[in-house]
Write a structure and sequence with these properties.
Layout (H helix, E strand, L loop, with lengths): L1 H18 E8 L7 E7 L6 E5 L17 H6 L3 E6 L8 H16 L1 H4 L6 E6 L1 H12 L9 E4 L12 H12 L3 H6 L14 E6 L11 H10 L4 E6 L15 H14 L8 E7 L1 H4 L6 H4 L1 H9 L3 E7 L17 H8 L4 E5 L7 H4 L5 H12 L11 H5 L7 E5 L13 H19 L2 E3 L1 H4 L16 H16 L1
Helix pairs in contact: 3-5, 12-19, 15-17
Length: about 475
């Protein structure tokens, strides 16, 4: 039996060498307590995955839930990085910081390692699945993964419906008594529309250690309920912890399912022109099921092709006015839109500003619009013609900004006021655009079609309306 095991390990090592061009280990902390084991493929596809082993936050199961995946992934041309993170012992900042450091290194080294920095995913198992979901929902834009693979993940930090010791080890005894912490790190509660990356959940229906219905299923439901891309493969049997082990009855099917999911993902080119769609519910895609795929930004992406990278930063109900009831510039989406470092920004705000409770501050609309513009283009704050020296030292990033006028409010739903939009908001937009040399997309005039393009509320475009918006904006970008 020992000879057979030894032969099997030798065969595995030979196979790994055949697919892995280079293997090395990097320290993630100065004391060497956290490290990242790197597996680079012979023929890179550009895709990379950062692996996060499980172990209940008490040990690292980095064999079948870590290194064992390297051969299959490298064979697909996928670079693979296993993070051996520090165990939290109640200090969650340790594992979170280690995984974020790993992702940052991968993106920073992308050109050297043959990786597309826009195609870096995360793959976590059990407690590592929880950690992967924390990074996916809590991390800053620069270290948030582009996709997530969650194997039988711990999602809830409520030990009554989850794996008790994962909860206790991650939050600590005191943290478990804090309902706000328990809620915030039960990651199904912090999934964000458009901002949380696409995910696939892999599990077995007979998992007795981490209940599927109160963990993986809850994350799937949260993703689907906000319209984010999420898939789920639930195998009839397998219990918990099968990972990439060939002993798993459905191992071959798992590899086929995961491989097809990975291949189906459309990835922007490394040098793609970045287009940020900033706006309210009309950009967000209110009333359009799976707006991440059928809202106007997604349809615009299809028209522009993979030479462009269009991202939706719309948030329903938001105002340009900083004294409005829901100011856009207070949102994480606005932080992300700037961190995205866009080449093109499409701003569509103003509809909610027309509400009486918001337009009472209408005298500040111009300055708030200018604040947004200057955040994107600080060079415009001091026009180049006034000071050559300042122009030379201006910020190098100068995205092209398009100001969209609001579409007509066909009905006064939610007290949205068409007269304020047409006679007060749009003239200010036009004046600001003329002052700073920005382009205007006059949706108020160009977007016509009546009930055929609108939801019954008379404010939001339906699916056909989203297509029309995409067409108008595409034509403006193409000029």
């Amino acid at each position: 039996m020992k000879k057979l095991i030894s032969f099997g390990l030798l065969l595995l090592a030979i196979t790994m060498q055949a697919q892995t061009a280079r293997k090395f280990t990097l320290k993630l902390t100065d004391d060497g307590k956290a490290e990242m084991v790197c597996f680079l493929p012979q023929t890179p596809s550009g895709k990379a995955i950062v692996g996060v082993p499980g172990g209940g936050y008490s040990v690292l199961s980095n064999g079948h839930e870590g290194y064992l995946a390297s051969d299959w992934l490298n064979n697909q041309g996928i670079a693979y990085f296993v993070v051996n993170y520090r165990l939290p012992g109640g200090d969650r900042s340790k594992p979170i910081g280690d995984v974020e450091s790993g992702i940052r290194i991968v993106r920073d080294s992308a050109a050297i390692w043959g990786i597309n920095p826009h195609d870096v995913g995360i793959m976590g198992f059990s407690a590592g699945g929880h950690l992967a979901s924390v990074i996916s929902t809590h991390a800053a834009f620069d270290v948030r993964p582009d996709f997530s693979i969650l194997f039988y993940p711990v999602i809830s930090m409520d030990e009554r419906v989850s794996h008790k010791w994962s909860c206790v080890n991650f939050l600590g005894e005191e943290g478990q008594k804090n309902p706000d912490l328990v809620r915030d790190f039960s990651t199904m509660n912090v999934v964000r529309r458009h901002l949380t990356p696409p995910a696939v959940i892999i599990t077995a229906s007979d998992d007795r250690l981490v209940p599927f219905t109160t963990n993986g299923l809850e994350y799937y439901k949260a993703m689907r309920n906000v319209g984010n891309d999420c898939a789920m493969f639930v195998y009839p049997t397998g219990d918990h912890g099968f990972g990439f082990g060939p002993w798993f009855k459905y191992h071959d099917q798992l590899l086929t399912d995961l491989g097809n999911w990975l291949k189906a993902r459309q990835t922007p080119q490394p040098d793609a022109i970045r287009v940020a769609c900033v706006g309210n519910s009309i950009t967000d895609g209110h009333g359009i099921d799976m707006a991440t795929q059928y809202g106007y930004p997604a349809l615009l992406q299809k028209k522009l092709g993979n030479g462009y990278w269009v991202k939706n930063f719309g948030v329903s109900g938001r105002t340009m006015l900083n004294k409005g009831d829901l100011p856009y510039m207070n949102e994480l989406a606005w932080e992300d839109a700037q961190a995205f470092k866009p080449d093109v920004v499409i701003i569509k705000l103003g509809t909610n500003d027309s509400k009486p409770q918001n337009w009472q501050y209408g005298s500040e609309f111009r300055q708030d619009l200018e604040q947004m513009i200057f955040s994107l283009r600080p060079d415009l704050k001091t026009p180049a013609k006034k000071s050559k020296k300042k122009a030379k030292n201006a910020a190098p990033a100068k995205p092209q900004i398009f100001l969209c006028t609001p579409i007509k409010a066909e009905k006064p739903s939610w007290n949205i006021n068409e007269s304020v939009i047409a006679n007060e908001i749009i003239p200010i937009q036009q004046e600001v655009a003329n002052k700073y040399g920005l382009q205007v997309i006059d949706l108020h005039t160009l977007f016509e079609g009546g009930d055929e393009l609108m939801l019954p509320d008379g404010i939001h475009p339906n699916g056909k309306g989203a297509q029309r918006l995409a067409e108008i904006i595409y034509e403006s970008l193409s000029k």
